[in-house]
Amino acid sequence: MIDQEKIKEAVKLLLEGIGEDTGREGLLETPDRIARMYGEIFSGMEEDAGEHLSKVFTVENNEMVLEKDIVFYSMCEHHMMPFYGKAHVAYIPDGRVVGLSKLARTVEVYARRLQIQERMTGQIADAIMKELSPQGVMVVLEAEHMCMTMRGVKKPGSSTLSMAARGIFDKNTDLQNRFWQMLRLSP
Ligand code: ZN
Fold first, then answer.
1. Which residue range is the domain that position 17 belongs to?
2. Secondary structure (3-state) at 65
3. Which residue from 163, 176, 107, 98 is spatially nearest to 134, judged by alpha carbons?
4. Number of C-alpha atoms within 13 angstroms, CB side, residue 21?
5. Paired strand residues for 98
6. Residues 23 and 84 in one domain
7. Is residue 70 included in any domain, yes or no?
8. Are 140 and 87 in contact (CB under 8 A)?
9. Does residue 82 sit in the same domain as residue 166?
10. Do 77 and 168 lie in a common domain?
11. 83, 134: one domain
């Protein structure tokens, strides 16, 4: 449960810690603003991906479904700085599919938490495996991490790729190649 009062107190301390005057005009409402904003960007803590993935439809053909370029914003748990980019989610059904928007909702549930990219990638794949029981799932995330580009090594524009393969995608290079081909739209 998100405790907005605690967040407000913490932001005040943070401002004092960096030597700011918490009483100056521009900062008066900052603790309150951040508390409300955190309520939104960490709302995934209180959500269950299963809710979004429970409505399924029966299908006859079990061809690969790929939802690509799902834009997401998350927060790295090591620095509490944003990382953001695109998720590509594919699965091979076993008689059941979900609405395409539900894949994007699933990405959002796991993005709106303190995260590391590798774990988020696996959580999306595992949730789809658990709720939809497909033959296999493959998830790829490409993201820019502000903790990399704004400080430290400072490499703007560099992106981090992570991948999770489950079910029949696991260790199956041919199927994984088909995924990459579909992603690039080359035959
Ligand atoms: Zn970080």
1. 4-41
2. strand
3. 98
4. 4
5. 56
6. no
7. yes
8. yes
9. yes
10. yes
11. yes
Report whether 135 contacts 92 (CB < 8 A): yes
Residue 44 CA to ligand 1 center (angstroms) comes to 19
How many residues in the chain? 187
Residue 48 lies in a domain: no
Residue 26 Rama label (left phi>0; alpha psi -120 to 50; beta): alpha
Residues serving a catalytic function are: 76-79, 117, 145, 147
Is residue 100 situated within a structural domain? yes
Measured in angstroms, how far is the CA atom of residue 83 from the centroid of ligand 1?
8
Task: Output the pLDDT for position 149.
Answer: 86
Residue 148, burial from CB neighbour count under 10 angstroms (0-12, 13-18, 19+): buried
Q: How far does the centroid of ligand 1 lie from the alpha carbon of residue 82, in Å?
A: 8
CATH of the domain at 24: 1.10.286.10
Domain shared by 69 and 124, yes or no? yes
149 CA from centroid of ligand 1 (Å): 10
Walking along the chain (187 residues) 10 residues at a time, the average pLDDT comes out as 93 97 96 95 90 89 94 97 97 94 96 98 97 97 92 80 97 95 79
